[in-house]
Amino acid sequence: MQPVYSAIAQLSREHPLIRQGLVSVLLLLVFSFNLGLWYLLEQREQAQLYQRISGQAQQMSQRYHAALDERVFAIDRMARRWEAAGGTPRKLWQLDAEAYLRDMPEGFIGLRWSDSQGQVRWSLAKNEAEGANLPRPSRPEPLTEAMLLAAQDSALPVFSKQLELADGSNGMDLVRALRLDDERADGYLIASFHTQQLLAGLAHEIMQEHFGMQLGCNGQALFEYGQAEKTDAHVVNRIPFASGHCQWQLTIWPSAELVAASRTLLPEVVLGIGLLFDLLLGGLYLLWRRGELRAIEAQAVQDMLQTILDTVPLSIFWKDRQLTYLGCNRPFARDAGKQGPSEVVGANDFDLGWSAIAEQVRNDDRQIMRTGQGQLGQEAERIDAEGRPYWLRISKVPLLDPAGAVVGLLGVHEDITHEKDAELQQRLAATVFEKSHEGVTITDASGRIILVNRAFSEITGYAAEEVLGQNPRILKSSRQDAAFYRKMWQGIRAQGFWRGDIWNRRKDGEVYPEILSITEVRDDSGRPLHYIGVFTDIGERKAMEQSLHAAKEAAEAANRAKSEFLASMSHELRTPLNAILGFAQLFGMDEQLSAESREHAQEIERAGHYLLGLINDLIDLARIESGKLQLSSEPVEVQQVVADALKLVEPMARECGIRLLGMTPGQPPCVVQADHMRLRQVLINLLTNAIKYNRPQGEARIYCKRESEQVFIYVQDSGLGIAEDKRERVFGYFDRLGAERGTIEGSGIGLVVCKHLAEAMGGDIGFTSAQGQGSTFWIRLPQAEAAQPPQAEAVEEMARQRQTGPQPDAAKARPLILHIEDNPMNRRLMQQIITADGRYALCEADSAEQAMQMIAQQRPALVLMDINLPGMSGYAALRALRDDPANWDLPIIAISANAMMGDAEQGRAAGFDDYFTKPIDIPALLASLERHLDGQGSAPHD
To answer: Do 100 and 74 form a contact (C-beta atoms < 8 A)?
Structure first.
């Protein structure tokens, strides 16, 4: 600003008239600015006064509303008691009315009942003095027919128009139509009261000093209170509200004392400062006239003026007619993105922080200077130098010269960003409150509902106005006992929060479940202020849970039925297969038969084993689908499993003329994490397919490779391969890709079982194929650490036993074996097995009861027992035998057609020394007998 002041000083020295004009303009600018600022402050004070009046009016209207509703609800409750009782004898009614009148505040005259024909039947005054103001019984009801009809149409009591009472005072009636259960009219319950006394009593309770008020109903002024005379209309506040079918209006105005007290000296102080500033400028002019020696003093005055402007908590600026900035205070310069006011002087809006909207700002300024009309309190959003938005309340007025011509513009910016943020937060909170799908209710510390949202009404059926002032207990369903609520409130008081499931009742009486959370709001001292309840209707979820539970039980029942069916079918199929395969094995081992007969026996055995394999595959598939397949996971050496599988399929390969190629000797061992038995089952299935679907004189090769942390086992054949259009069906259920029309045996489920088993062991299965060249199937399994090798001594002992085998003592008598079996065919089979072996004697029983007697008499060395026996089952017989100390060391082996998953484990856990499933593996059975009877002797049974 210094160069500008220097130029003005030089020009004024050379041209006195110009100097005088400049000073006059400056004084006018300051005066106009001061006047505008004074006007703004006056407007703000009036706004604050109006806000105070509005707040008082709102508070009083709420109190009046609540108080009038309380009277309405009191009469409504008495009417409901009448209706609930189906009518009340006069004596009881009089006692009830006396009780209500005792609780009524000053101003109540009394109660009366008029019948549905408009005749006063009973009446009761609050005291003898009020008796004259009540209509006498057996007289016509003084209320108009229209008033009675209005009461019939309303569910709550209805206020009448103001009436003149017998003592000359004014009064009103509160009318409630009575109805019986069948909706028949039962007359009217009418409460009378003195208008002036009732409303004055309320005014004494809630009215503050320095206010005047008037209360009217349906356009009729009923009551006026306070000594304050009405002032200007712009500070009078009117608030309507409804109660008792009446439209009430509360009018409130401040007293002259309150208006005077709300005014401050700030506008006058600002005006005084402006006048002082004018005086300072005048003094500056005198200093200029005294010469350059007073220039320093003039600069000090200018600095003081700038300091005054900078301390004002508003952004202030002024422009000339060309919209060039003539001056501003420091807050304005900061908003404009400048270091100080000196950087703003001489600039225009394109040079400041809001250059993007500069043209709009300048158009507004031109409009003000063209019309001479100011803009007050206009709100606008701006962007600061750092790109952050902020809000301003902008007021602008034109600057006039003494002749009234516009010479510039004065503006004041007030930063209202915090106000806008607060408004936004309130709007967001209100939106969330109203739009939430969860019901929300807010009560005061005493439990009265003060606010509910829309979802509350949608869920409960209660409108907001029906529950305001009520306690949330109106929703109680009686599903929870008192102990439940005590525990709930203990949690709220201890933790300030509670959440849980609860049953509540809607307005229509329906009981529904909800998730409810209650939060206690406390002040700084810990005193409860409010309680906020948030709840969600979970009726649909509860129904869905019940439906899912029923579906789960149905599925479990179906699975149980399926498991029982599989167990039954397995037992029924294995029982005849036991005889078929057993006798076939015996015939095959009988060297006295002709070669052709032994070959026929081998064909029977082969067909039986095929049928047994098919049964096992079907049962495995059913277990897999029902999720009941149980696997063990252990380190398994692939070479050993491959050797076992090759040994089992070697006869089939030899018969088909297929050359089997196993793993290379000396190859480092491959160890996988798998189930030993199931891995062997998969490899046997793959090798069997490689043999069956090979070309004559072909080859089938099996080998493994390690890749990263995985092991791949490959089964390769030299067959015809799989056509490309059939490869997607390889692992399909019962799909043999057309081979079912040929002579090759198969069921179409072997590869399905293999795939499920591989995946259950944490691996996968797949294949590659080239038509005319063959196929390679692979199974991928996770690699594992090698199992700990057996101790050297154990290895040597195992080797010795394999070399020497058991050495029976021919001198000993043959041990006696008791076979318990109800099926004659299976008994004959066991006779043939024991006879062919020649080392044991055999006795038989067809029931557990018979066997118990034979064991006590003959003391056999070992018992072979069926599980499913007539009468006492095998398990019951086992328990009975083990209860006798004499049988604790008696070996008991189960032979059963129960071959489902877990049956063998269950048998061994029950106490059987071994468990064999039908069909019997004869070599395995003989090995078990030898193991349990090694070295034992008994009395001769030859």
So the answer is: yes
